[in-house]
Specification:
Length: about 80
């Protein structure tokens, strides 16, 4: 019988707490359970009129990507 370790879901609040005070990257953090791609999620935020101040430093994390392309378009 195998042992299953407790899995901790990503938390925007916990991620922000780990950043240095005044950090630009991570000023806005979105954590999604599932998305086609985190790049697509950022594009959706931008296309819905996301405020420039909200987009600056935006980071999107996903627990699962259904169509993520990886670095430089790698699959």
């Amino acid at each position: 019988m195998s042992t299953v370790n407790k899995f901790d879901w990503l938390s925007a609040d916990q991620l922000k707490a780990e950043l240095p005070r005044g950090a630009v990257i991570g000023r806005e953090i979105i954590v999604l359970e599932q998305t086609s791609s985190t790049n697509d999620a950022v594009s959706r935020v931008a296309s819905t009129g996301g405020l420039p101040s909200r987009l600056e430093g935006l980071v999107v994390f996903a627990e699962h990507q259904t169509d993520g392309r990886g670095q430089r378009g790698n699959r």
